[in-house]
What does this fold into?
Amino acid sequence: MKRTGFVLAAMITDYFNYAFSHLTKRKLRSWLTMIGIFIGITSVVALISLGQGMRDAINAQFSGLGSDKIIIQGSGGGFGPPGSFTVDPITKDDKEVVDGVAGIDVTIGRLMRAVRIDYGDETDYEMVLSVPPDRKAIDLIVEVNNIKMLSGRMLSPSDKNKVIMGNAWIEKKIKLGDTIFINDKGFEVVGLMRKTGLPFIDGTVMLPEDSLRDLIDVKEVYDMIAVKVTNPKDLNIVTDRIIKALRKHRDVKEGEENFQVQTPQQVLKTLDTVLLAVQAVVIGIAAISLIVGGIGIMNTMYTAVLERTREIGIMKAIGARNSDVLTMFLIESGLLGMAGGLIGISLGVCLGLIVEFIAVNVSAVPVNASFSLFLILGALSFSFLVGTLSGVFPAMQAARMHPVEALRK
Amino acid sequence: MRFEYLGIALKSIMERRMRSWLTMIGIFIGIAAVVALISLGQGLQKSISDAFAALGTDKLLIQPKGQIAGPGTQTSTIQFDQSDLDVVKHTRGVEEAIGWNVRMAEIRFNDQTRFFYIGGIPTEDNAENKLYTEISDHKIEEGRDLKSGDTLKIAVGYSLAHDKKFDRNIRVGDRVLINKKEFEVIGIYESLGSPPDDTAIFMSRQILQRSLELGDTIDTIAAKVSAGEDISIVEEAVKKKLRNHRKVEENKEDFSIQTPEQFLQAFMTVLSIVQTVLVGLAAISLVVGGVGIMNTMYTAVLERTKEIGIMKSVGARNYDIAVLFLIESGLLGMFGGIIGVLIGMGLSKLVVMAAKAAGYGIIQAFFPLWSIIGVLFFAFIVGALAGALPALQASKLQPVDALRYE
It folds into this structure.
């Protein structure tokens, strides 16, 4: 007997009605089964949305760097600010070599050093950054770090013994025109920056390169060189040119460079990989509860098959095929999973928003929960899949029942 | 009487074998995850505190502030030198003090260049060397340790000699270029189980200072307090003398003094938080497993309505029925718990083996008895709690209604 499309459609509607009526009949059991699923979906959705939000925030920060910058540092491995573990530091000579490479708009040499800062009656130990005496370079620093002044001004090329400071220093009672002491030398605060919410920028202290060189007695070395290329399309070509030029200048073989040339995108990629791995572990552990929830569905479905043995026998006796019985039970378990998923997604979204609210308002950490359509559809189809998969064995058991045996029970 | 209950509960569990298994799987997955995470966390805490215990309770670690990225960070402008070490050495209550340097260096071997940490350590045959040996826990596996008079000699960490950090492993007698200067390998250390230590190269501090042109800069100072002295009093004394020597005011010190315990405490706090979060996430699946038990028990009550009616009509009290079902659900939880503990222990052993293969011998599995008993008890409680509502429902059935149920 061949079934027409119309009959098929009617049958599928019937299957759904059948599954639905059974689920509502055993209300308590259906609820408990769905709770098993939605607890897991809630935690997974909340964790993914917060993790995604964090990665988005970091991406946004890096995107300020644009796709036309290159960063050059000495090699040495280890984690930390540029220059921390350098063996062969980058020097003024190296910067000149980079300056000579074709396709470069601006190069900036920078120093980052930890110093003692005395202000008022307080003492802090912080990193400070140098600003080169070059208008174009200063403009680029402003652009890259998205520096906006709250009061005062940015450093200018002719400044000596002046500093600008991040917003966090305002909370430490620093005012425009104050004098602070860096390693015992006085500096005048000529600018204070707007709040960005990023600790690294808000805590920053920038001072003229020459003043910092006098302070730490470093003549030739740079901790990093930042480059802006003329045409973003040439980024990779210019990167290669810089590597070749520096290799030649520093007399090292290919593959044994004692310097690193990276684009911010490469740095971001490394950072993102680490974040992704942490996220995967956390979500993996939370997802264990989804497996347990799936086993709950399987259990419920086995019980349903057992309870309805006679019913299955009757259906088969009047012509239901194995595949019909199979489909009916699969739809039922799939519905259980999906309904659990729907509730779980709603609760997960709420949980994510609550965490975001607490993080922003109580601990002032800029966390954004991010709910992509992909996440919501993904969680929904995943919960449907868990439901259906968990129903496979019970449904097969039901489908294979012999009508006579089933009716005799 | 009670044993009878147990028998009835066991019989019911065996009767619905498939359902009981699935219910228990729900519990033991969660328990296995929790046990594995707890045992690995405890193991890590134990091996770290053992390592610190080797330092003893009579040591002080003194570091300049501003070494944001750790010891030897070259961008710090605040540094110690020999005079600071001498000041610490001559403080009352300090038996001995040593200084060392840790730097990154360019290592050339087998025509390949790599970057590794090098440590400059006291090698003179005196009290300083004795104190360093006491602190570092370094043991020679092959060759000999550094000794006084060694100039262009180095001893290398375990991984450099075993894990093909270069295409060829370094052996005793090999020659290695460090920042383009040739050194001879005279010893290989046993593994300390942590990659940064096991890939480091060690030489005399004076030689390191000379080859890297560090002058007499010292990165870290460690002091041993004389027997019978109060460590906190000595700590204050060292702080005061260094303050005077470095001409800084009180509470504005440009250095920090920590005892290994304080160091350990800070580390353990972080570790505990991470562990709590992970175990908490894993425990979500236990809640789900508990809900599964509840579901199974409701089904059991439903299926046995008639049975309950009969029991009640022959004299069973509400209390008896409730206890019967509670025992059944508690047993489900506990059996799930026992299997879960076993699987969890196996799982953590596997992780330890994998970690060891990756060079992290410091990761150990540790199963304190309290945690195993606690987990089993917890599993029983989860089972019994999950069974509470169904058991209550069963106990409140009216015998007449129950008997009438089809």
The mean pLDDT of chain B is 86. Strands of chain B lie at 59-64, 94-109, 112-121, 140-143, 153-156, 175-178, 181-189, 201-204, 220-225, 255-258. Chain B touches chain A through 53 residues (CB under 8 Å).
